[in-house]
Amino acid sequence: MVHHIKAAVLAAAADGRPYADTRPLSLETVTLDDPGPGEVLVRIAAASLCRSDLSVVDGKRAWPMPIVPGHEASGVVEAVGKDVTSVAPGDPVVLVYQPQCGACPSCLSGDAHLCGPGLAANRAGELLAGGTRLHRGEAHVHHHMGLSAFAEMAVVSERSVVPLPRDIPLEVGALFGCAVMCGVGTVINTGRTRPGDTVAIAGVGGVGSSAILGALLAGADRVIAVDTDPDRLAEATRLGATDTVLNTDGDAAAKIIDMTHGGADRAFETAGTIGAFETAFNAVKRGGTVATVGLVDPKTPFSLDVAGLVTSAKTVVGSYLGSCNPRRDIPRYMALFRHGRLPVDKLITHRLPLDQVNTALDRMADRRALRQILQP
Length: 376
Ligand SMILES: [Zn+2]
Ligand SMILES: [Zn+2]
Hints:
Helix 5 crosses helix 6 (206-217). The chain has 12 helices and 18 strands. It has helices spanning 19-22, 51-57, 105-108, 116-124, 170-190, 206-217, 230-239, 252-259, 274-283, 306-312, 326-338, 357-365; strands at 2-10, 25-33, 39-49, 67-68, 73-80, 92-95, 134-136, 139-143, 153-157, 161-163, 198-202, 222-227, 243-246, 264-269, 284-292, 315-318, 348-353, 371-375.
């Protein structure tokens, strides 16, 4: 059986603005296959818009086309394929953009976020078992990160879902799939922030704001939010940042070195720009750690003073999925949310129907939103 569903389809990357007029994402009826073995059909309840979705639309990152974006979402299991054991129809779930095969060297060594077959399937725009379940007429429509959540329903691998406890609202559950793992996970797992640390966060959009919550959770003494936008810094203060630095003319790192008497213990690039990376790199003290998670445009040139890296003894580390094992870390973060120690619901700034996804893209591009929840 196939399902006829409404989905936001991107035919080709396009960066004409405003998106509300050029409408790169078109809401169309597409067909969705029944779930195959090890797959589940999920009715999407909430899909939030992440900056990575914008990089799919504007072509900064190349994906097979056509594609249905959307990689941060929650929903309710509608049906399950053969051999599915971890969820059943009626179960609320969080969708996770990195499927974990459970059998590759990375999965076996505990690095589920680096799953090789999961990454290969994502890059091909296919599900973990191969192929697409989305079609438009005879043509294949590709999955984004094994999910494609800007739609009424999605077929995904069982290894792309984590059960969502019923006492956690579905719209909050959606955030755990990307913003929470990438923000909180980067600060705690990748950056190994410890109680008493001074932490600088360069770029306080959705993931940067999540990183603020992570730094507070980890017991950081000072959490220094850096951004080019004063409104965003006001928001960062509301979330608990202890200090803010307005980066007007690229002098944020110097200000941080000054105010911390030598630099932060850890700094995080959460803006997806080389400028933010440089700020983070220059703002840490000698021996400090710099983690980058924001996905800088791969075509942006960058040079590194390698000798300076030696003498400063800094650690530079990339953070994919916040170095999280989704099935281990999402339940932990949910428990912390439930106990009021990780108030990620504060990241939600807008709610709108799925057919306004292009307007939401404009707001994201203009840095006027943390997380916007789209409801099909
Ligand atoms: Zn994301
Ligand atoms: Zn694997």
